[in-house]
Amino acid sequence: MTTTGAMSSGAPPGELFAEAFANLYSQGIRSILALLGITVGTASIIAMLSIGNMAQLEALKSFKSMGIDMLQIRAAQTGAGAAGFDRHLVDTLPADEPDILTAVPLSISRGQVTAAGVAADVATIAISPAFATLAGLPLRSGRTIGEADDCGLVAMVGDGAATKLSAPGARLLPGAKIAIGDYGYTVIGILAPVPNESMNPTDYNDSVFVPFACSRRIMPGGDPNTALIRLKPDVDSAAVGERVKARLANASSTLTVIDARGLVKAMKAQMGVYTRLLAAIGGVSLLVGGIGVMNVMLMSVMERRREIGLRAAIGATPRDLQLMFLVEAAALALVGGLAGVALGVGASWFMARAMGWGFAVALYVLPLGTGVAGLVGMAFGIYPAITASRLDPIEALRAE
Question: How far apart are CA 187 and CA 161, in angstroms?
Fold first, then answer.
């Protein structure tokens, strides 16, 4: 028993907690073992919720350049002819569909490109001048394909493709000549590295871009097989996608609509399931920690029967005794919860470093972890507190 003596339910909270910490300190290693259970449980909740939050933020970064107001239409071959759709229909979409801001046709194929005797298998993308702006392509050197290059033999090369087509000690630069099929092209621009985002139809780093107008000479069919469409904010993207699909439909191709908002919605729903699952696992860990607190408090009640009897003899009421053990259980859980928050944040930071993610902790999990730990401690401290309050003072004073 500490110097506080027979505590009163009207004692200041500071005095109650000071005595609780003193009693827990006197129990030494037993208190530390109980702390470990709460710490591990709280750390599990903090780490799992934070990792889920970081994973969601990383997934949303894949829409950073073009945003989520985007549709992508892809054509797959269903007959003998090349897959594609009418370019004129794509070009007139913004005029005919009030919900569409921009529509850009692309023709994508893959094949061998050579430069100064170096050959590489890369994607070839026929683009209109508006594409570089829509996709936010960053230039390392040179310029992008413009209106003046309508049918010219010029090309813009992605960062990875430029590396593949460079000879040792002689990196591919604007002004160099490359060959695509039977045609020679002059490189007018080299792109800086581009993040491979969810709405990119192919990896732009590993691509060579040519003007769309005369791409038929190096690409089968010559019609676009992909379209990127920017929508007005807050329109019904699914409905617009279906209308565009019906407009571009033809007998030689099967069209697929990829809706950025739909992808984000599905991604968030999936992350929500994972987050709830991870939180449930953390909750089970915290529950085990709470059982540890209850065991420690029950042992404390049994070992402190003489103290309990003495407190009762000098005037402590059953409510005072209950409050004393409840405060000790809450103090134990709160300290474990705070340690668990620190451990969970540290584990989240380590995971972010290991995965190459940006470190971000959802602020709501910090009070959540500590608060839940405190509540668990209080809940599992009720039974030991009631047990202590029901001890017979005379029998307790006779206890060895």
Answer: 12
Is the CB of residue 299 less than 8 Å from the CB of residue 329? no
Q: How far apart are CA 362 and CA 353, in angstroms?
A: 17
Helices (H) and strands (E) in the chain, counts: 12, 10
pLDDT above 90: residue 158: yes
Tell which phi-psi region holds residue 136, choosing left (phi > 0), alpha (psi between -120 and 50) or beta. Answer: left
pLDDT of residue 10: 59
Residue 377 has pLDDT above 70, yes or no: yes
Return the percentage of the chain with pLDDT > 90, whole number: 24
Q: What is the pTM of this model?
A: 0.66
Q: Please name every residue paired with 131 in a beta bridge, in sequence order, or none if there are none.
A: none
Taking the C-alpha atoms of residue 274 and residue 279, their distance in angstroms, rounded to an integer, is 8
- Give the span between the Cα atoms of 321 and 161, in whole angstroms: 76
**Does the CA dihedral 233-235-240-241 come out positive or negative?**
positive
Residue 96 makes CB contacts below 8 A (sequence gap 6+) with 247
Q: 67: Cβ–Cβ under 8 A, 6 or more apart, which residues? A: 230, 260
